[in-house]
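Tutorial, part two.
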Amino acid sequence: MKRFIKKLFQCFFWWRKKNQYATEEELRNVDALIVSAFGGRDGDIIGISNAYLIKVTDEISKQYNIPIIAQWEIGNKSSQKNVIFSIQKTPGEYLDTHGVAKKAAEFCKQRNIKSVAVIAHPDHTLRCKWALEEEKMDFEKVYIVNTEGCPYDPQSNQVWTRSPKKFIPYEILARLMYLAKGYI
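Running the prediction step on this input gives:
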């Protein structure tokens, strides 16, 4: 019950914290990057949020030689050759944060990946991290990469990812729903 109350509190009040980000030393010991997209546009157009996430992912992967496990919007556009798993959506279905975490965790289990770093929009990273941790994997550690400069995309197809005024209320509700379903 104490864990539930703590997580309930965090659903409303736990956002960007400077001390939550992985250090250089921690990144050197990460087995893989797990990257979640943020919003999207039609066709092959990469929105500004995902373009930023691709840039950060590619830089960190190259600098630390870390393989990438990414949602398809990121994985299919990465310039790095070490995308080891691109998480695809089922045609006609929406791939949510829980689905990304579940597929990433299954892949990590098959490959014995124990330490990961999450790359996502800064207002989305905590739910991504919590969803991965809740997958009951034997992760030794789930870190968060600093993406503080990642913008919102005012032209995103997903209306709730266009601005903080739209996303924060959505994210609070999503966190509460995930908590109720046992996803976080």
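The first strand starts at residue 32 and ends at 35. In part three we will examine how such features are distributed along the chain.
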